[in-house]
Amino acid sequence: MKAFEGKHIVAHYGYNLPQQIIKPKNKETILTNPSTLKYLPSVNDWVNKETGSMLTRFSPDTELKELINQLDKKLM
């Protein structure tokens, strides 16, 4: 160990990664009157009764739709 004292014996062989693009976080919605919302399974979202606007604008893929349909049949 004395022979290596003060010597540079380990070097890093790194590389520079490309700069990552950070996506903005999801916008939060603060509900002042949640009683105006009603869940509609046909659109898979909460819809404002007064304006017709959707809360999350979530669109499930076909695999999720199939899974939900299978669960609904088992519960009935």
Mean pLDDT: 79
Strand order of the largest sheet: 1-2
Overall geometric form? elongated
Low-confidence stretches: none
What is the tally of helical segments? 1
Largest sheet: 2 strands, antiparallel
* Fraction in helix: 10-25%
Strand content: 5-15%
Rg over alpha carbons? 27 Å
Q: Termini separation (Å)?
A: 75 Å
The assigned structural class equals alpha+beta
Q: Count the beta strands.
A: 2
- Helix-strand topology string: EEH
Written overview of the protein:
This protein is an alpha+beta fold. It has a domain at 31-76. 18% of the residues lie in helices and 11% in strands. It has 1 helix and 2 strands. It has one helix at residues 62-75, and strands at 37-40, 45-48. A two-stranded antiparallel ribbon has the order 1-2. The protein is elongated and about 80 Å long. The N and C termini lie far apart (75 Å).
Topology record:
Layout: E1 37-40, E2 45-48, H1 62-75
What's the short story on this structure?
With 76 residues, the protein is of the alpha+beta class. The protein has one helix spanning 62-75; strands spanning 37-40, 45-48.
Question: What attributes does this structure have?
Answer:
76 residues
